[in-house]
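[job 0412] stage=fold_complex status=start
inputs:
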Amino acid sequence: MTGSIQRRLVIGAGLGLALVFAIVGAVVDVLARRALTDQFDAALAARARALAVLVEQDGAAVETDLDDRLLPELADGHGLWVELAVDGAVMYRSAPQAPRGARAVRHRFAPRQEADGPPTPARAAVLTVAQATAPLDDAIAGVRTALALAGIVGLALCLGVIAWLGRFTTAPLRRLADQIDAVDETDPTARFDGAGAPAELRRVVERLDGLVERVAAALARERELTAEIAHELRTPLAGMSATLEVALDRERPPARYQDSLREVLAICGQTQQVIESLLMLARLDRGAAAAKVDGDLAALVTAAIDRADPATRGLQVTATIPAAAPVRTDPALVAIVLANLVDNAIAHAEPGGQLVVSIVDGRTVRIANTGSRIAAADAPRVVQRFWRGDRARAVGAHAGLGLALCQKIADVLGARLRIASELGGWFTVELELPVQNRT
Amino acid sequence: MRVLVVEDYRPIRAAVVELLGEHGFAVDAAADGDEGRWLAESNPYDVIVLDLMLPGVDGWTILRELRARGAPAAVLVLTARDAIDDRVRALDGGADDYLVKPFATAELLARVRALVRRRYARTSPVIAVGDLAIDTAQRRVSRAGEAIALSAREYALLEYLAVRAGELVTRTEIWEHVYDFRSEAISNVVDVYVGYLRKKLEHGGRGRLIHTRRGQGYVLEDAAP
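[job 0412] stage=fold_complex status=done
writing structure:
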């Protein structure tokens, strides 16, 4: 149900209170009517008893002093109608008919019995006293009017209070809404003032703050990434333009032109790799999922080493790989990580240095090279995107984002990437695939 | 003039080294910060073309140390970072000029030449000593309006003597500012080249401009010693 909280409150309260007032009013009305009627009847009965004094039943004889002259005095302004009937025959009647809408009380006379005489034949004497209910009706009407008036005024007042209460309690909501309207989502420092918020809203405000902070952080990351991408692509571009400009600077032998063209082509290839890596990172950022296929980690590692060709830098390669290491993972992604790690290790090692690749406990690949130029403290930062010390940026077939991509892929695979380094010593990277649930 | 190029990305490094070399500069190159810093400390370069994002010691550190040392070399920062903040930081940090990649090689050359002028406190690209006129932008030399053809090495030598016109220039200084590490260290190569230069400058009976100070060095000036 839509609509403002206030309107819902007022309508709901209005209906509810109206119902309550109606029920209470009806109950009060019934009770009042009964009380007034009882009161009326009681008064009438008293009057009847008073008049009964004027009737004597002596054995079979009934005598009365009732007559018209007496009645006005007796009735003393009450407008009574009196009838005395004996065995059905009317002895006295103050008027031919009882007033319309009158209430009547009947008083039956019990004949006096002589204690020691024979039972006297009873004669049924009934004194009927009636009175028009006009005063009663007026009283009841009065009560009803008072109730109705009280009900309406009360309802109006209640609704007024509720309406005001509605405004009062929703004021923090309106304030929050104003704040939300005023927030500039591109302002990374925008926050909501949770200080004045009532307890129920505090959670909302906190969550909102958290959301705004995350959005601002995401926007900042995106800006940063855009700048970094531009930087990453500028470098090879500058390489190409500088190479071509220098080649064209003066007349050169054809062989020289060919060298320059080959150089530029190579840089084009590297740039392509950078772009592919960036696209992959973007896709992974958006939440691409990894496949889960049965594969052989040993085969993947061996392929990565062969492809990378460590012989070019004269490295001594030691590979400790079991015959087979079955794993359930995404082989394409694992292959990319391995390729990057091996290329990186080869690029980082000093010429003639060592490259050691091994598979530990069936699901962890350890790649280590000597000649590390990274201090131990810097090791964790190496996987940050575009970290300046990443030499793989400019060297090797997978020029580009190397280790940052590896970290991202590791996250998607549910794997852990551990990096350790000693300046001048070993640079070690471990890719630990998640525990295999063998069924 | 001697230039140091510190740039880790090989294609750019190679292109810049070749470019400057072909335009008469003696060029040394470093592929990382450590080598760059060591070279900058060991030799009196006139201009240093410095990339900021380097493996090992980073460009900022090298710049800071150069300035702290009071090295006279002019520094041109070459980088892919183009944000205003980066430029301001670099210039305030002691750089003399800032060029963003990708750059036009012609612009790099022009800026390096401008830095050389500044390094030797000159405002005009043309150096005049007596009737000798050296247009450093065009790399053209003339005496009394008549053009003189010089080899690249001869021109470099003349230019260095000319920026130091009137001052005594030692052989060591000539060696350090006109030759790079790739040159062979022949003991009297400086004297030989000064001889070549003199011959061309004084051809046709023109007055002597390069004067020898025995045991000390040379001076380029119009007056007789």
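[job 0412] summary: Residues 1 and 178 of chain B are 5 Å apart (CA to CA).
[job 0412] exit 0
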